[in-house]
């Protein structure tokens, strides 16, 4: 990276573009090049560092992000108007970059204060959750949860709350189908999540996703802290709300007996998300989060990278770190599935990124993916999982998901993530339950503007006040504090009640 007093960042010696630290005016001098900017350039956007011929590859971080659509002169503004996405062969080189992890000895590993569950899982929060098997019971579960106000919960100080996870599917869908399996797997992942002390599942009675079949097929066991209700059997809406309130009231005293104790950081599973990315995301927040995940992996924990469309174009960065050809090939197979799934659509996978990404300096999906993949750090890729599949490996893993943040985070939580780390450049306002979200800002101006929503300012890196490794250590230490109960900004704001969004991937009929 270039020196901190320059208005530009030169990210790699082989790059033919520079990144503006702050907004640049027309005619502003470019130190070291002997030329001036040939356009106004927003912060986080790119200019040509040298002459780039029409059709020549444009490189950022020594990675191809497209080709020039016309001759570009030094100082020209480089963005989607003169940069074309072109697919090219990328050697997967399975395992070429695998390096042994320097694990911290077990007795010296970091720790946090967590809730140890009877089955061996460890929670970072202590909620009671209510799940709907179908949209038709969504209103009922919301009304049950609404009964448990702060005043009523004051008698149970060790319970973080009663939260309803309503969803919009469960019927009017093909079954059996991949969508049907994904929905059940997601609901079951929440039902057994270590951040939930107790669970109530409520169904209608005539839906395709029958409650008893859901419980049996997913290996769930009913008991004092895992209850079910079916509206048509109980007596309708009001009767089910009343029965649900009684069921939760019976769970609360036992849930309130839970106490935090000291546990190893090896129990942590962290979901990695990015949303509202900008040109600084791949320079500050994402690599800093990757550095934190390298530390977590050294301490025996698990980092979960997802959002499959947002590794498109840079998947070789992950296949080169796969511990086996089978692991690397499974990742490529998921990308091939996405290529078929999105064929003919103006989807992100096919190159089109959102308005906020464009405004933030990202020209196409390859450039966005380049930053997104950095969240996973540098340790070996140990496994690739389906959406909401239980994650059993320790270390760096990948879980297939869409790039849409609520859907991706829902899958990660269903897979076992007890915390979500969410990087943003534009200022995504996101929160989640029962696993809280930690928000990392990529630039200082946005952090200062939205400080009420942001937990960590990674913009200090581009400001020259902190290195990526130093920020990674800060992030790791803050993860341990939040895992131990310190509230995140999104928790303080009450976010998370409406961000449960299972992946709807099938037809509606």
Protein topology:
Layout: E1 8-9, E2 17-20, E3 29-30, E4 35-36, E5 46-48, E6 57-60, E7 63-68, E8 77-78, E9 83-84, E10 111-116, E11 122-123, E12 127-132, H1 138-147, H2 150-153, E13 161-165, H3 178-191, E14 196-203, H4 211-217, E15 226-230, H5 231-234, H6 237-255, E16 261-264, E17 269-274, H7 285-298, E18 302-305, H8 316-319, H9 325-341, H10 355-359, H11 365-372, E19 381-385, E20 395-399, H12 405-415, E21 419-424, E22 437-441, H13 444-449, E23 456-457, H14 468-483, H15 489-492
Parallel strand pairs: 12-13, 12-14, 14-15, 17-18, 17-21, 18-20, 19-20, 21-22, 22-23
Antiparallel strand pairs: 1-2, 2-5, 3-4, 5-8, 6-7, 7-9, 10-11, 10-16
Helix pairs in contact: 1-6, 3-12, 7-14
């Amino acid at each position: 990276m270039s020196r901190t007093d320059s208005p530009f960042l030169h990210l790699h010696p082989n790059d033919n573009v520079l990144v503006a630290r702050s907004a640049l005016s027309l005619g502003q001098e470019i130190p070291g090049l002997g030329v001036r900017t040939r356009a106004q350039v927003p912060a986080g956007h790119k200019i040509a560092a040298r002459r780039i011929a029409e059709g020549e590859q444009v490189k950022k971080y020594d990675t191809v992000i497209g080709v020039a659509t016309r001759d570009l002169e030094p100082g020209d503004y480089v963005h989607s108007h003169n940069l074309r996405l072109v697919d090219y062969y990328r050697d997967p080189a399975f395992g070429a970059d695998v390096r042994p992890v320097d694990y911290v000895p077990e007795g010296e590993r970091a720790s946090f204060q967590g809730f140890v569950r009877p089955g061996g899982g460890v929670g970072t929060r202590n909620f009671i959750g209510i799940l709907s098997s179908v949209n038709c019971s969504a209103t009922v579960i919301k009304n049950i949860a609404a009964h448990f106000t702060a005043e009523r919960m004051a008698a149970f100080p060790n319970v973080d709350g009663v939260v309803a996870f309503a969803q919009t599917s469960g019927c009017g869908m093909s079954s059996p189908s991949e969508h049907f399996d994904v929905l059940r797997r997601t609901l079951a992942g929440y039902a057994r999540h270590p951040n939930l002390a107790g669970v109530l599942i409520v169904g209608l009675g005539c839906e395709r996703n029958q409650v008893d079949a859901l419980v049996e097929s997913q290996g769930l066991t009913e008991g004092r802290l895992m209850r079910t209700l079916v509206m048509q059997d109980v007596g309708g809406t009001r009767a089910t709300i009343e029965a649900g309130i009684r069921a939760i009231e019976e769970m609360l005293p036992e849930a309130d007996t839970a106490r935090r104790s000291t546990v190893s950081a090896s129990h942590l599973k962290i979901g990695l998300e990015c949303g509202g990315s900008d040109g600084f995301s791949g320079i500050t927040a994402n690599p800093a989060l990757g550095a934190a995940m390298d530390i977590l992996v050294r301490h025996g924990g698990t980092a979960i990278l997802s959002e499959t469309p947002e590794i498109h174009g840079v998947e070789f960065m992950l296949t080169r770190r796969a511990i086996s050809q089978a692991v690397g090939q499974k990742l490529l197979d998921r990308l091939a599935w996405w290529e078929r799934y999105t064929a003919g659509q103006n989807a992100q996978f096919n190159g089109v990124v959102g308005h906020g990404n464009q405004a933030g300096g990202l020209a196409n999906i390859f450039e966005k993916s380049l930053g997104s993949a950095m969240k996973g750090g540098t340790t070996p890729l140990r496994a690739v999982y389906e959406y909401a599949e239980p994650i059993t490996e320790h270390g760096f893993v990948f879980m297939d998901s869409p790039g849409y943040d609520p859907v991706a985070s829902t899958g990660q939580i269903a897979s076992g993530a007890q915390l979500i780390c969410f990087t943003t450049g534009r200022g995504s306002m996101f929160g989640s339950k029962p696993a809280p979200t930690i928000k990392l800002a990529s630039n200082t101006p946005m952090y200062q503007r939205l400080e009420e929503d942001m937990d960590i300012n990674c913009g200090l890196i581009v400001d020259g006040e902190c290195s990526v490794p130093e920020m990674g250590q800060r992030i790791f230490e803050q993860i341990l504090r939040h895992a131990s109960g310190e509230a995140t900004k999104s928790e303080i704001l009450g976010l998370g009640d409406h961000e449960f969004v299972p992946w709807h991937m099938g037809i509606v009929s």
